[in-house]
C-alpha cells in the first residue's frame, strides 16, 4: 500500500485578541499534514506567516506540489533540497519524524539521544498595548518565571518600566518584532538593561539591522525575523548575541537541529520560539529546546481550544509530548 498524504486547514480560536507591533489576531490558522504508511500514521503542523510571504493557500499549494515526492516515500534528508525552508516543509518534516517513530516503535526523543526529556520553563507572552494595560497583564502573570513582552513603538520606555514594576520577580524578554526606529535603539536598550531585562528580540527590521554591530549592546540582542536557517547564521554574528529558532522558519525539526548545532558552534545563545499554533506544532520544539537558553513555547496557552490530547502545561512549565500527540 502506498504512502498517503492528507492535508487539512484548521482554525483554532485565540482566547481574546493577540496584538504586536504588526497587528492583531483572533484565530490561529494552521495546516495539518497526516502521513499514513502501512497502518502507521504521523502528524505535523505548520503555521503560515504573512511576514514571510506565506498564506494558507500558498503553503497548501507548496505541500500539494511536493505530494508526488512525499507519497513516493521521500526521506527527511532529501526533503531538505526538495522544499525550501518555511512552514510547508515544517509540516511535512514533522509528520515524517512522527511517522518514523510510529513505524519503528522508537520515540523521537530516543532517536535524538534524549533519554529523559525534561519539562521546560517557557515564556508567557504579554501582548502589545497601552502601558497600563500591559502592566495589568504582567501583574496577572507576575508569578510566572519568564515573561515575553511585546514592544516595538518609537517610545517604549513607559511600557518597559510599567511591566517591570508589575512583575518585579519575573525574568523578562522584550520582543520588538522589528518595530524600533534606529534613533530609539540605544536609548531603549539602555532602559531595558537598567530594568534588568534578560534579552531583546529583533529590535530593528530584518535586513536593516547593521547598526547593531556598531553600538555597545548592554544586554543580549536576539535575531528572530532576521534568521531562518543555517545559511543565515554567519552574517549575523557581528550584530546579534542570540538567535530564535522556530520550526516554521527553518522548515522543520531536521534543519532546526542542524541550525542549533551550528549556532552553538558560532557562540550564539539559543532561544526556541513558536508561532500561534497548537500543541502539535509545539511538541517537536519541546524536544529541540531541551538545553536551550530561552524557551518561548507558549502558543497553545493563548488558545481558547487546543488539540486533544495536547501538551501538558503547569505553572511556567511545558512538558515533553506523549506519543499519542506526537513523537
Ligand atoms: C503566542 C505567541 C505569539 C508565540 C510566541 N511567544 C511569539 O511571540 N511568537 C512571535 C511570532 C508569532 O507572532 C505572530 C504570529 C501571527 O500569526 C500574527 C502575529 C504574530 C505577532 O507576533 N503579531 C501578529 C498579530 C515572535 O516571536 O515574534
Ligand atoms: Mg519574535
TrEMBL record:
Q: Which Pfam families match?
A: MR_MLE_C, MR_MLE_N
**Cofactor(s) required, per the database record:** Mg(2+)
Q: What class of enzyme is it?
A: isomerase
* InterPro entries, per the entry: DgoD-like, Dipeptide_epimerase, Enolase-like_C_sf, Enolase-like_N, Enolase_C-like, Mandelate_racemase_C, Mandelate_racemase_N_dom
Q: Membrane-spanning regions, if any?
A: 266-289
List, alphabetically, the SUPFAM superfamilies matched: Enolase C-terminal domain-like, Enolase N-terminal domain-like
Q: Give the Mandelate racemase/muconate lactonizing enzyme C-terminal domain ranges.
A: 131-222
**In the record's cofactor note, how is the cofactor described as bound?**
Binds 1 Mg(2+) ion per subunit.
Q: Which UniProt keywords apply?
A: Isomerase, Magnesium, Membrane, Metal-binding, Transmembrane, Transmembrane helix
Q: Which domain of life is it from?
A: Bacteria
EC? 5.1.1.-
Q: Which residues form a coiled coil?
A: none
**Which family is annotated?**
Belongs to the mandelate racemase/muconate lactonizing enzyme family.
- What name goes with this protein? Dipeptide epimerase
What is the scientific name of the source organism? Rhizobium croatiense
Recite the lineage of the species: Bacteria, Pseudomonadati, Pseudomonadota, Alphaproteobacteria, Hyphomicrobiales
Amino acid at each position: 500500500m502506498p504512502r498517503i498524504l492528507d492535508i487539512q486547514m484548521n482554525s483554532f480560536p485565540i482566547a481574546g485578541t493577540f496584538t504586536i507591533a504588526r497587528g492583531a489576531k483572533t484565530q490561529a490558522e494552521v495546516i495539518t499534514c497526516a502521513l499514513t504508511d502501512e497502518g502507521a500514521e504521523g502528524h505535523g503542523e505548520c503555521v503560515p506567516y504573512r511576514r514571510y510571504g506565506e498564506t494558507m493557500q500558498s503553503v497548501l499549494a507548496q505541500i500539494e506540489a511536493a505530494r508526488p515526492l512525499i507519497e513516493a516515500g521521500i526521506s527527511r534528508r532529501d526533503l531538505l533540497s526538495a522544499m525550501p525552508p518555511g512552514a510547508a516543509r515544517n509540516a511535512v518534516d514533522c509528520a515524517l519524524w512522527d511517522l518514523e517513530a510510529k513505524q519503528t516503535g522508537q520515540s523521537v526523543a530516543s532517536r535524538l539521544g534524549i533519554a529523559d526529556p525534561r519539562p521546560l520553563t517557557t515564556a508567557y507572552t504579554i501582548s502589545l498595548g497601552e502601558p497600563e494595560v500591559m502592566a495589568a497583564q504582567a501583574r496577572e502573570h507576575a508569578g510566572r518565571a519568564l515573561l515575553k513582552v511585546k514592544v516595538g513603538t518609537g517610545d517604549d520606555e513607559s511600557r518597559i518600566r510599567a511591566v517591570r514594576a508589575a512583575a518585579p520577580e519575573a525574568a523578562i524578554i522584550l520582543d520588538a518584532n522589528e518595530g524600533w526606529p534606529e534613533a530609539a535603539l540605544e536609548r531603549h536598550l539602555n532602559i531595558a538593561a537598567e530594568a534588568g531585562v534578560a534579552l531583546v528580540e529583533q529590535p530593528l527590521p530584518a535586513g536593516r539591522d547593521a547598526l547593531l554591530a556598531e553600538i555597545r549592546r548592554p544586554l543580549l540582542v536576539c535575531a528572530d525575523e532576521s534568521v531562518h536557517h543555517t545559511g543565515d547564521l554567519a552574517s549575523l554574528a557581528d550584530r546579534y548575541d542570540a538567535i530564535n529558532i522556530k520550526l516554521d522558519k527553518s522548515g522543520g525539526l531536521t534543519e532546526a537541529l542542524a541550525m542549533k548545532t551550528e549556532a552553538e558552534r558560532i557562540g550564539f545563545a539559543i532561544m526556541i520560539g513558536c508561532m500561534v499554533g497548537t500543541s502539535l506544532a509545539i511538541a517537536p520544539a519541546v524536544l529541540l529546546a531541551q538545553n536551550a537558553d530561552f524557551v518561548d513555547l507558549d502558543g497553545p496557552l493563548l488558545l481558547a481550544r487546543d488539540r486533544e490530547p495536547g501538551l501538558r502545561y503547569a505553572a511556567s512549565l511545558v512538558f515533553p509530548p506523549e506519543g499519542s500527540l506526537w513523537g
